[in-house]
Amino acid sequence: MNESVKIWKEISSYIESSMSTVSYEMWFGKLVPLTIENNKLILVSPLVSVKRTVDGFKDTVVRDAIEKSGTYVTDIVVVLEDEAANYKPEKEPVQQEKPSDDDVYKNVLDPSYTFDNFVVGDCNNIASSAAKAVAENPGTLYNPLFIYGGVGLGKTHIMHAIGNYILSIDKKKKILYVTTEQFVNGFIDSLMKNKDNKLNKSFREKYRSADVLMIDDIQFLANKMSSQEALFHTFNDLYQNKKQIVLSSDRHPKELTFLEERLKSRFQSGLTVDITNPSVETRVAILRKKAEIKKFSVSNEVIFFIAENISSNVRELEGALSKVMFYCSLMKKEVCDIDTAKEALKDYIDVTTHVISIDNIVDATCTYFNIKRADIIGKKKLKNIVNARQIAIYLINDILGIPLTGIGDYFGGRDHTTIMYARDKITSLCKTDPLVQAQVNDLRAMIQKK
Ligand code: ADP
Ligand code: MG
Questions:
Q1: What is the pTM of this model?
Q2: Mind listing the pLDDT tens digit for each residue in 8-48?
Q3: Ligand 1: does its nearest atom lie under 6 Å from the Cβ of 210?
Q4: How many domains does the chain fold into?
Q5: Is residue 51 part of a domain?
């Protein structure tokens, strides 16, 4: 059975149980699974009315069903029959030996997220080497492996790649990849099934018999104290049995302030690695790789055009490339040219190349730190104001390249050595202090998105 058919069967069974048979048949029963792209299940609808109704259910019934199904699919996309030609239909899978007898461990990994498909650059080479080392020697070298970084930079991809690699060596390994939400929901479900408030056996067994446990986006454990407790015990069990644990988060474990101390220290007891925004060279390499995977013929000029204009994260880069592909197929272009690419991306590029001014940067910094404009420009020496001021100075110099004396004038006639001090201090904190690094990244994204 095709992957998309299999996964749709699982997801739709949950949808079916949440509505009347008549409604289910009328709307969802008519959808035909086509393929899976970027973790999205593409379904073909025969009628506009069916598509509209199903889209209307996306935030409720569909989302719940996807969540409950626990597969790697994150969303469904309903397309009409005439749009279906824009997607590459799946090939029949080669019959493979089952990875494991156990149902809970199947369908959790996206087979396209491999190390081969992952482009290594300055932004991720430590993370990717660590991940490969872990995949080659699970449970021995770096345990746990903790990967952190902003959205869309490849954390989930790397985790799946570890799992896929281990399975390619030994199909019987029990790889358990879950999002933090799935972990928490599974935990709550299992408590509800047991009246005496004890965890039921299947939850414990599912987690504790895994050979590799990967939990994605651990920052969502915020304020979920009993789930943290459950994770603590699961962690200890697996760790003592030398089972590999991989965790991801949007920030350094130190910054997970809502987390119990004992968990935080467990998380840091192995290896912690970060992924940062890709440089333009890496963006070019990623785009080339993605175009090659999708068998999309595209000139260097187009690749550079996208890479130079979309710098926020890899997910957006991929989105831009897909949009360009879609335009080319609409216009029946065999090879994509720069004009088609520019046309396809006019909304994106308008957004990302707007003219940024010093005022924009200072205003964004004030909003972010919740301080007044007069204070950031003025002479106050309160710690939080000084920190915000130094970050604003750093960003003005970094984004706009304005000379230090010019920045000094803007900040109430400060001497250029003061400005230089601020810039150098933030430059070095960006390398050593994850909080400052996160603040600078957040602000940069805010400023560049406006
Ligand atoms: P995160 O989990 O950090 O939010 P994802 O792993 O979901 O990010 O990555 C977003 C998308 O970008 C995925 O489709 C992934 O394949 C792609 N991606 C990210 N980094 C790379 C890379 N270095 N090489 C190839 N693809 C990448
Ligand atoms: Mg992710």
A1: 0.62
A2: 999 999 999 888 887 888 889 989 999 998 889 999 998 88
A3: no
A4: 4
A5: yes
